[in-house]
What we know:
The chain is of the alpha/beta class. Helices cover 41% and strands 15% of the residues.
Amino acid sequence: MGQVTTYDEHVSLGELTTTADDVRRSVESVIEGKPEAVRLSLTVLLAEGHLLIEDVPGVGKTMLAKALARSIDCTVRRIQFTPDLLPSDITGVSVYDQQRQDFEFKPGAIFAQIVLGDEINRASPKTQSALLESMEERQVTIDGQTYPLPDPFMVVATQNPVEMEGTYPLPEAQRDRFMARVSIGYPSPAAELEMLDVHGGASPLDDLQPVAHAHDIVKLVEAVRGVHVSDPVRRYAVELVSATRTHPDLRLGASPRATLHLLRAARAAAALSSREFALPDDVQALAVHVLAHRLLPTAQAQLNRRTPEQVVAEIVQRTPVPTGAGPAAPGAPPDHGRQQPRGY
């Protein structure tokens, strides 16, 4: 059984990495051979974002989402998106109570700290739009009444590629609200052999126990907010995002929200590396995951089979990296230089 650690006061970076490592090991006990996907999931959680997991069926998208949710002692709700799902099934509905002679609000599945949206692009765009307010403002408005969502709040959604049968493309506004997108990919032969041993008899999720409380995650998020981002790093992030708006292969670039998400994710990545300051390398390592799913290629780029991921990678390669970007943050060395972050 996992041991749950709690903190009552301000969380130091050492405590943050300890708790994050506990959650990471817990998730990796279920998802074999995919440390980059697990680390990105933790980064998005600590950056107060939402995660989109996109890949072909059967590679463990839902398993990753479930493992992350079960590793934290918090409220979890799952929504299986289907073509007949209604927006009220997600947000809730007001029902008339004859005894009280008044309307009573029945909360929907969105009222949880971690919401698992399984195969989100199998529902109609109308139903998908029910998530827009909750993902951006962390609240739900029904019949003129606003209901706040719990803290922490994270949507972990899975989707199949749009080439699959019975799928709808996610609206641009919906994609823009996901902080990052990750593809799990097929496991290596060694990891697949180990999976047959571990998953062959029973699901490893059955034995997964929480290793952190929701209260811990709130404290960790507060610690991540305190990570320093210098002006050169901020300008570097803005230059990367601005380059997507003028690139000839893109008809829709990244929004200002994408810039905010990129900086928040860089803060979380720095904290997970036990640093009190973000580096350009943190921004570089996250750029493709944070920006690519928001971009729309031109028709010519599609004909040339140019993907948004390739375009972002090209922009990162061409954009000059600021030197000496390490700030004079409290407790930081005078010259941070360029350190190599952990890969994603």
